[in-house]
Amino acid sequence: xxxxxxxxxxxxxxxxxxxxxxxxxxxxxxxxxxxAGSIAAGAFATAGATGTAGASTATVRKSxxxxxxQTSWVxxxxxxxxxxxxxxxxxxxxGLQVTLLPGGPNVALSAVVASGKALVAMDSVTAVAEANLSxxxxxFRIIGAEFQISPYAIxxxxxxxxxxxADLKGTKIGVAAxxxxxxxxxxxxxxVPESSVTxxxxxxxxxxxxSGQVDGLVVFFTTQSVSLQVAGHKTVTMIWADFNFNQYxxxxxxxxSSLQDKxxxxxxxxxxxxxxxEFYSKNPAATISLVQSYYKSSxxxxxxxxxxxxxxxxxxxxxxxxxxxxxxxxxEAHQNLETMAAAGITGVPASIFTNRILExxxxxxx
Amino acid sequence: MSVRRVVRRWxxxxxxxxxxxxxxxxxxxxxxxGKGIIAAPTHVIEALWDDRALYGANVPTTLExxxxxxxxxxxAAIVVAGIxxxxxxxxxxxxxxxxxxxxxxxxxxxxxxxxxxxxxxxGSVLAGFFVFFPTLILTLLGLRQADPGAxxxxxxxxxxxxxxxxxxxxxAALPGIVTGLSMTVPAALVGAILGEFIGAxxxxxxxxxxxxxxxxxxxxxxVAAVTTALALAGYYIVRYVGRLLNPWSPPLDASATASAxxxxxxxxxxxxxxxxxxxxxxxxxxxxxxxxxxxxHLSDYVVKNPGDVVNYLVGSSGSAVLSQIGITLADxxxxxxxxxxxxxxxxxxxxxxxxxxxxxxxxxxxxxSIPAIxxxxxxxLLLGRGSLSAGAIAAIVTFFPVLVNTMFGLRSASGDxxxxxRAHNASLxxxxxxxxxxxxxxxxxxxxxxxxxxxxLGATLAEWLATGRGLGYLIVTAFVNSNxxxxxxxxxxxxxxxxxxxxxxxxxxxxxxRRLGVAGAPSSGQRAxxxxxxxxxxxxxxxPEETPQLGNAWFEAH
Lengths: 366, 558
Fold this sequence. Notes:
The complex is a heterodimer.
Chain A: H1 24-41, H2 52-60, E1 65-70, H3 80-87, E2 96-101, H4 109-114, E3 120-123, H5 125-135, E4 140-147, E5 152-157, E6 172-176, H6 180-189, E7 198-202, H7 207-210, E8 216-220, H8 224-230, E9 235-239, E10 249-255, H9 258-261, H10 263-282, H11 284-292, H12 306-316, H13 320-325, H14 333-342, H15 356-365
Parallel strand pairs in A: 1-2, 1-3, 6-7, 6-8
Antiparallel strand pairs in A: 3-10, 4-10, 5-8, 5-9
Helix pairs in contact in A: 3-10, 3-11, 6-14, 10-11, 10-12, 10-15, 11-12
Chain B: H1 3-31, H2 41-50, H3 52-86, H4 91-103, H5 106-116, H6 121-144, H7 148-156, H8 161-183, H9 185-198, H10 204-213, H11 217-245, H12 254-259, H13 271-295, H14 306-314, H15 319-322, H16 325-352, H17 354-369, H18 372-383, H19 387-410, H20 415-423, H21 428-467, H22 470-480, H23 484-516, H24 524-537
Helix pairs in contact in B: 1-17, 2-11, 3-6, 3-8, 3-9, 3-10, 4-6, 4-13, 4-23, 5-6, 6-8, 6-9, 7-8, 8-11, 9-10, 9-11, 10-11, 14-23, 16-17, 16-19, 16-21, 17-19, 18-19, 18-21, 19-21, 21-22, 21-23, 22-23
């Protein structure tokens, strides 16, 4: 019962090519065109709702190759690059119709890729390595790392600040089940004995910190830190990357078998992601205003903190490596493996990262 | 209803609700201000108004998902109950299947639903799973208590099984079905929300995730309030429609509640037959599990078969799962004991003092409809993150169905026996001890038994959100680490624990009832006589609102 996404979404967008920056006028034209399109389609509330919408669009554009991409969370500024690619037609111009599947706290990312429901999903390096361990093979490979700098951080209240790793001794830290491995790696790297910190299990809420049940929370400084700030809490954020925690985040991964079988789709897909990321990293505010008109049902994207979060995401997309090779490029495989080894995940081959797809994607974009 | 009657019926509730809102206001505005735990009601209302467009964009998605699951799950339950009633050997497999579906931890189902279904269908399936079991029991219960006189007449006129089912039993089952349809509304909503946790772009669950992630306590409570309001509205709408359809039908019978869904029930068949049936049922469930993998082309990376699970459990890493059983049993046991104690005591209190019951029961219903994830922070703040919290969360999830069934059981003493006691100048205490408790005992014990899976699920929820140990935490850890074999093993162990816990309680129940001399249901003749008396005298022992609600809070646990 989802309304069909209308072509109007992309109307007014630039035709393509290396032209990534839009002038302000071009941008507002684009945004207006998009809004008009969604009104025409009656798609206000559920624009961006995926699944069935993707299927019906595919029948409209028979010539397009359909591909599904699973995101790791509910609609969120984190996926700005993908929204830009979708709305500006970076995929359709390469003949690809991409369905973005929304995620959530209980999404099983590797399962979705393993079952073939999605060609590509995104997760942390550790999660992909763990999935390979469970499969007893190099079942999954990482084909691009959007966040070159880890967004992991520990947020604490300004009244009881945790500024450096040594401050963690004797504290209680709230950690979600999915972040425990990374947190232990961080403690190891910063020489804080694990026994000196009490790990308190949390779900995905910041309440344990604001209610004083824990001294700090493991968060992304791009999201929870921002929302705590917007909600009026005075906080201090200790960014792990500042203390030699080197780990990619938001890694696009696929089945090893797809590297050959679905190479063309993967290249087209990643080319669009790269273009989206280039736009997002340079225009975080414009990206947010672009997607705000499509994700009206998302409290996060429409919130005051969205633009601030977007700016932080834009910062962690770029590194020395990306300056040289382009966004998403993975040049620090060994640092990542060392970080994982600190968490006790050893024996992961460097080939878990492959730049093959990105290479071809960048060739396509030239 | 006259104004005075409305005031008498709802005045207490309204007063109490106001008092609670006042306390919340004081806590949210001053005592716990800025802590992000409790939002002052005025702020919640303000936020509700400010975010009305956001709610408008999200509520329909969740409602649609919940409605689909509710409709299909309930329809399936009614059909299965009809089959189980007509074909004797299907009853045990149907009940065991229902109990299994009821006991599987939701988080373990997530990956399977996610890879096999698209869009919001996983939420609908979860909602359907959550509503299936309560409606199954209630329908069976209703089918079983058809008026023996009417059954006899039907048989005398040569009606076969099918005709008896459609013409006599179906009519008798209507109140039970209506109760099932109404009480499963909150569960369907929670199923839909949980489905959104697997992946969604809009809905109340998405709002809840955003709000919790974003430290927006007003929004968290707003979503909880809207969810509860929808649950209440659905509940009363279904009841109202049900009453229009079936204005004269007698309410459900307490003694029948007790015997319904008793896997160890003796029904005249030999022990051997019962054992064979139970084993065959288990075999059938295993077969379905085994066959589903190739039939639905499920990825063996995600879905493990029974053989994989057994190999894992007996293998070297199996101890990771087995070593957690004790912890979860202790958490569930504590929650179960506290939950049934609270349920029983309140139930007795509410029957002894009906005014208190009238005032407090709707509030208890509201409390039991609030998604557990919202109240966990309050519990951990008060009780810390140890066994006490786990027990408390399990108890909150458990107490409500016990309370309602206890009240229902205690009230099922018939009007003439009560009159007899009154004529002999029996005190309140004597009436309770010598009449109400013995008559209510079967329903009270049945409620305890049905709450066992709830206590286990409540404990696992607490382990995930509060204590970080036990099978509940292990299953989540296995899930996030893509360790699907471990996840399936933990899910299977949890499901078996629930079923064993349930079956043990069945045996205990039978022993207790036999010792007390109240074993088994009163004869159909007695029951029919009471019904006749009630009709002639125009007396109604129970108001329609007070028909049994088996397991209104269990969905919290999923």
